[in-house]
Specification:
The protein is mostly helical and 85 residues long. It has helices at 13-23, 31-39, 46-62, 74-78.
Length: 85
């Protein structure tokens, strides 16, 4: 995605963390299933994937950490407070 601009969405620990907390993703982490569910909703475009992944990483580094700062979470606020924490 980043090195060659190939439109393949990267699923990493941050992506799993966010999806677990906001969508109740089960502990059975399936890389390809999560990748498919995300890319199904986005245009197949490397720049879009890069930006979306970068936003996930930033949010998880700053707010949705292992010990999260939920009171600062704009996603949680926009989701009506819904989070599986």
């Amino acid at each position: 995605l980043y090195a060659f601009d190939v439109p393949v969405f990267v699923v990493d620990a941050y992506t799993f963390r966010l999806w677990e907390r906001f969508f109740g993703l089960s502990c059975n982490k399936d890389y390809h299933a999560l990748q498919e569910s995300i890319t199904r909703e986005l245009p197949r475009d490397a720049r879009v994937y890069q930006e979306f992944h970068a936003l996930i990483v930033r949010h998880c580094k700053e707010i949705c950490r292992k010990a999260p700062f939920c009171s600062s979470c704009r996603i949680r606020a926009g989701a009506g407070g819904k989070c599986f924490l």
